[in-house]
Amino acid sequence: MKNILITGGAGYIGSHTAVQLVKSGYNPIIVDDLSNSDEKVLDRLEEILGRKLSFYKGDCSDRVLLEKIASAHDLAGIIHFAAFKAVGESTEHPLKYYKNNLGSLLVLLDFMRDHQIKDLVFSSSCTVYGQPEILPVTESTPRKDAESPYGNTKKICEDILVDFVKSKGGVRVVSLRYFNPVGAHPSGKIGELPIGTPANLVPFVTQTAAGIREKLTVFGNDYDTPDGSCIRDFIHVMDLADAHLRAFEYLGKQDNNFYDVFNVGTGNGNTVLEVITTFEKVNNVSVNYEIGPRRPGDVVKIWADTDKIKTVLKWTPSYSLEDSMRDSWNWQKTL
Ligand code: UD1
């Protein structure tokens, strides 16, 4: 069984990916400092999988810890999720974001070279496109100046990977540009666990429906979209997890010093108001919301062109927006 190191494996996307890896015969080795996740996720994962997992609590930029992991497991590759991701916080504490998000990647690449670990799947984001002129966005849509230090770290990390591959560092890399991950494992045992007030739409919707938040504010209804609210491409986290598996298997077929990038979205755009309405309809609950002012820095509309990932990785999403809203609510109810 191939061992794959999953940094940030106790987090939202990492934990779902761990499930999919085990289902496909891989052995995930999780490293997570639990700065934005909870140790209980490991128990939940073990419940879903019916087996123990290897977990190391710590920072994936801690080289001593990485050496300890490498001496215990023969690593076939790394899926690097661990990163800070709060857009607002990144504008207040840019150095924290640059240090953590760039620093961990640099340490991991050094570690990979020294141990001849070839394969890396990197978590990037559609944020690298900014507000695109033409929609949907393909992988060759030009990247824009980032709107936030967070977004800039994703862009710079992609550049670092390209340069490292060009230098014949011996690695094979895929960057996955995620659109908006939503939903949860259908079992309701794992899902997104925001600490404090959620910044993202769907956790705010579920917490409002659950009565934890009094009211959801829709940030603007005067945009140039059918109902005036922003458009995003909401991708179920199980489909997103599956894309990592496909990306990893794809890397195995490539020559050394390989780099590629894929959009991971559904290919459909939905407005914020459609998300709320779909959530209410599928779950038969109402969400108390009001229209508020626009949120600074928000992109008006973005959704993915998914031709490349469908053709090359043979990946296609199997969950609808309805499924996502049902699973997000199911997860909220178990909390
Ligand atoms: C942003 C980043 C994305 C990042 C993600 C992680 C950009 C363009 N996107 O996604 O790269 O991975 O954060 O946190 O930088 N909304 C409301 N009310 C709310 C919350 C959100 O109306 O209470 C609206 C937003 O205005 C937006 C949509 O819902 O139009 C989605 O917002 P959010 O979930 O925060 O994701 P993004 O901003 O798309």
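^ uridine-diphosphate-N-acetylglucosamine complex. The longest helix spans residues 94-115. The pocket of uridine-diphosphate-N-acetylglucosamine is lined by residues 85, 87, 125, 127, 147, 151, 180, 199-201, 204, 216-219, 230, 232, 272, 295, 298-299 (CB under 6 Å).
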